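FORM 7B: Structural annotation worksheet

SECTION A. Query
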Amino acid sequence: MRKAQLNRLIIFLLTGIFIGIGTFLMIRYAQGYRPTKQGTIKGTGLLAANSFPTGAEVYINDRLTTATDATLNLDPGEYLVEVKKDGYFPWSKRLVIEEELVTQTNATLFPSSPALQPLTYTGAINPVPSPDGNKIAFAVASASATAKNGLYVQDLPSSAIALNKSARQITRNNADFDYTTATYTWSPNGSQILVSFENDRHVILDADRFNDLATLIDVTVRLPQIFSEWEEEITRTESTKLAKLPDFMVNVATSSATNLYLSPDGEKILYQAQADFVIPANLIPPLPSTSTQQETREVMASNWYVYDLKEDKNFLIADSKTQASSLNKINLVDEIGAITPAELGTSPSAFKKLSLDHTPTESISLFNAQYAPIALTNIQWFPDSYHLILVSDRGLDIIEYDQQNRTTIYAGPFDPAFVYPWPDGSKIITRIQFSPDTAENLYTIKLK
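SECTION B. Predicted structure
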């Protein structure tokens, strides 16, 4: 009896030891440790070679190694990783593999021969994107029927069912309201459009329906109140977003930088420096695996940078020549938390930065600059928050936020004053005029 109990105890202990050793070895294997020919265990790192689209060839140090998507165990060190696929621009980057850590390529491949497709057919004058980027307002003056000339809104849906949805007219021209020479901006929530005409009349349009000329009311006397209310809404939203930054970068955003635009996912900031300064190291606790690309923490005035608030990395993107206009985005937040008192909203001097000492037309331009950088610069975020779009002498470029893999995706004719991404990143919208006798129309450059 005792012998049987002892045997069961031994079996139980051996089973526990076997499971424990097996679990330990599995954990070490998952961490990248591999046996060597010398009979020792050596730590390695993991390279997750992934691409969009998949099925691309992966070259490591100029040797074809595998295809995406795949995971490779590599000795710690620096490697030249290239991802290539027929019909797409190649991707390459020097990556540092670290022991026990996973390094991802996240290679987005853009087509080398993107297709062009017209979005409008009767012209598109002064296109202005909505604050959320899901609509574009523009004027039409060359429609075959006079009643079709006026202001239009083009939705930018991501669903396949609504991709071919044409622009809808929200009002028409007449002798008093000529939208082709007017300036306009959106309300912060994108539901209304404020229009300023050359005859100093101003109207607010509902962006979701047709607005009958007979019902339009001149809102000129209410402009100060409208501008103040809209500015307050923008300021409060901006203050909430900036509060997520490290304290030093909050100070940069509110006093040492201008033309600041958060990425769509809110984890990175595109900004233009107003002064020289140095970003201290370790503003936030370091993550186990971060970008190994060379960053720039010595910031120079007028240059453009991207700060990654998740990884505490700062990258130089472009020099001051990227500025395409003398217009600047006005910083509405002077200090985080400074706009919380309830009585501030009723102060006569509150929220006047975009309207005080400015004409209505100037204020409209300043509001548009709050919503999107295309009003003032040749650089803007791509919807994936990993890339940026730049307009250069070569054409339309896309670059990763760490200044790697700059690619000219389109070098044909286009209007450099209007380049804008489709919300899902599948296309880029611009204006093209193929003949002097035709109107400039909106076209899409297909990327997916």
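SECTION C. Observations
The longest strand covers residues 77-84. The helical segments are 2-30, 223-242, 247-256, 360-371.

SECTION D. Sign-off
Analyst initials: ____
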